[in-house]
User: What shape does this take?
Amino acid sequence: MGRRQIISKEKRRMLLGLLAAACVMIGAFAVGMSVLGQESEPVRAAKAPEVEGAPEVADGSMIEAQARVAGLAAKTEAEKQAAAEAAAEAEKQAAAEAEAAAETEAAAEAARDQEARRDARREARQEARQASVRAPAPESTPAPVEPNTAVPADTTMYLTVPTLGLNDIPVVEGTTESSLSQGAGHLSGSGYPWVEGSNTYIAGHRIGYPGTMSDRVFYSLPNLAAGDEILLTDANGQTYTYAVSEILEVPITDLSVTYPIAGRDMVTLQTCIEDFGDYWTEGPNWLVRYVVRADRVS
Assistant: This one.
């Protein structure tokens, strides 16, 4: 019995050892399979082997990230371009504004220069008038004028003022708009050059009607000065010569300038100005009459 027991014990030990070894082998196999499964997973997820000429296949998240980066880059580039265009437009606008401002300043400077020259001429004329023109008529007796025997049947006359560049301006009877539009008008009831001791009174528009003989016919009348020549020619061809002796500015209600003056044979030219001393403003009120008197010299 002792020997059998010993053999039985040895068998049991062998069986237990085999069993333990089998368990160990099974466990190792299981662990090995697990490890192989984990390590093989990346191999299945890895990209396919590279083949020459074939495009790379990117991970979805990487593609999305690259797309976002590309979008941001495009947006940034567009913003830069928009900013550059806005800056260029602003610079262009600033240059245009600067040019416009320079042109405006140049025009204003030219206007100031013109006004200064105009004021200087006006002051010179006023001084000349105060010194001579507005003085009483010369004491020297005008050259004797022989009475006219040939009275023209037509009262139409022709006015020439060399200083103003006026030549043979028709002077028709009356001072209606119809008469004035033809050139200048003779005030009915005033004298004629062929009548001794007359004040031949002639009116003309300052602005007049474009396209007619009245167009600015007396615009430059304020430029006349003492001694300037005025000529009237009647319908018979007789010419009467006068020299400027007085210049007056009177209200429109003052009719005394239309009356004859004893001992003088003269012609009077009248136009309108905006106000006293304002010779070049072109209306709209025309409050003052500008009157040039000239005495006959031949």
